[in-house]
Amino acid sequence: MYKRQYEDKESENELSKSIPKVGMTASEVEKTSWGTPDKKNKKTYSWGTTEQWVYDNKGYVYFENGKVTSVSER
Fold first, then answer.
1. Are 1 and 14 in contact (CB under 8 A)?
2. CB within 8 A of 10, min separation 6: which ones?
3. Is 73 within 8 Å of 56 (Cβ atoms)?
4. What is the pLDDT of residue 47?
5. How far apart are CA 38 and CA 53, in angstroms?
6. b/e 26-58 (16+ beta carbons within 10 angstroms → b)
7. Where are the beta strands (DSSP E) in 8-66?
8. What are the pLDDT digits (tens) for 17-66?
9. Which end of the chain is less packed: N or C, by CB atoms within 10 Å?
10. Higher pLDDT among residues 10 and 17, named by residue
11. How many helices (H) and strands (E) does the chain have?
12. 13: helix, strand or coil
């Protein structure tokens, strides 16, 4: 059990030093070095949702149905 907790903590630590990547979930993005966005723009369609997370000094993260589809860095 300790080994699993250590691995989870190590994984979180690595995530906190990283930047958002394609395939991540919103909660994973918030755990990266970018943290929570300065602004969120959300659109809802018949087939699902899209979101744009705006980071004033870093760039943009785009989601489709809860997963990152692209990242645009400044």
1. no
2. none
3. no
4. 96
5. 8
6. beebebbebeebeeeeeeeeeeeeebbbebeeb
7. 39-45, 48-55, 59-64
8. 899 999 999 999 999 999 999 999 999 999 999 999 999 999 999 999 99
9. N
10. 17
11. 2, 4
12. helix
Per-residue pLDDT for 69 more than 90? yes
Neighbours of 24 (CB within 10 A): 21
Cα(27)–Cα(36) distance, integer angstroms = 9
- Determine the 3-state secondary structure of 18 from DSSP: coil
Residue 61 half-sphere exposure, CB side, CA atoms within 13 Å?
28
Q: Exposed/middle/buried for 63, CB within 10 Å: 0-12, 13-18, 19+?
A: buried
Written as six digits, the tokens of 4 are: 């699993």
